[in-house]
Amino acid sequence: VKDLHESAMHVKEDTVSRRLGATNRTCLYFIIATLVALLIFALATIMVLLVQRMAADPATEGIAKPFRTGNTSEDYLRILQNVPTKGAAAYMRVSNLVNSSKLRLVEKGICEDIQCEREELVIKKQGLYLIYCHLNFHFPSCSNSPTDVKIELLVNDQVNRQTLSTWCASETCHEKTYKTLFQLHLMPLNVKDRVSVTLNHPKFLNEISLPNENVLGVLRYSDEM
Known about the structure:
Belongs to the tumor necrosis factor family. One of its GO terms (molecular function) is tumor necrosis factor receptor binding. InterPro entries: TNF_CS, TNF_dom, TNF_ligand_SF_member_8, Tumour_necrosis_fac-like_dom. Pfam families: TNF. It comes from Probosciger aterrimus (Palm cockatoo). By secondary structure, this protein is of the alpha+beta class. The chain has 2 domains: 41 residues; 152 residues, Sandwich (Jelly Rolls). 28% of the residues lie in helices and 36% in strands. It has 2 helices and 10 strands; from the N terminus they run H-H-E-E-E-E-E-E-E-E-E-E. Strands 2-1-10-5-8 form a 5-stranded antiparallel sheet, with helices on one face. It is elongated and about 110 Å long.
């Protein structure tokens, strides 16, 4: 009887040991599987972040490259030259006229199928045109009184678009202030339409220090009106 009792105890202990071993192995397998899943998820996350970092982002593409300083009109000219045109384009430097608010064309840059006069661009082909104007300003002695600078794009001597900007306010005033305005306008133009630009304070137009390239131009975007 004693031997039978001891044998039964050994059988129970072996059964309990086997059950405990099976439970421990199950927990171990579960922990290993969880760790492997977490490792795969972490690696996938890292790969996605690396791909996003290496992909070209148009909004931040230029951050990796140093910013250009000085005259930016060359950049505009390069962009405009790469735009497919409909056979008519002008890119002309402008300067201020004595005792006149209308700016004059002083240098021939691009003038294709456009009549470039002394103070205006005359259209030869009708179509949808992009009018652009890039002006730099210099306030040599910025006072505490605000200065309103107004740019007007004229078509046949009629104001078609205007921009008003207030500078030299007391909170933004410095001893010397440099500012730049770039204006774009898309509109239909007919044959013999005349495009020009006026400035209410031409004396502030920067023609001495960099950046000082002031431009008026048109680009025939489409032949449809």
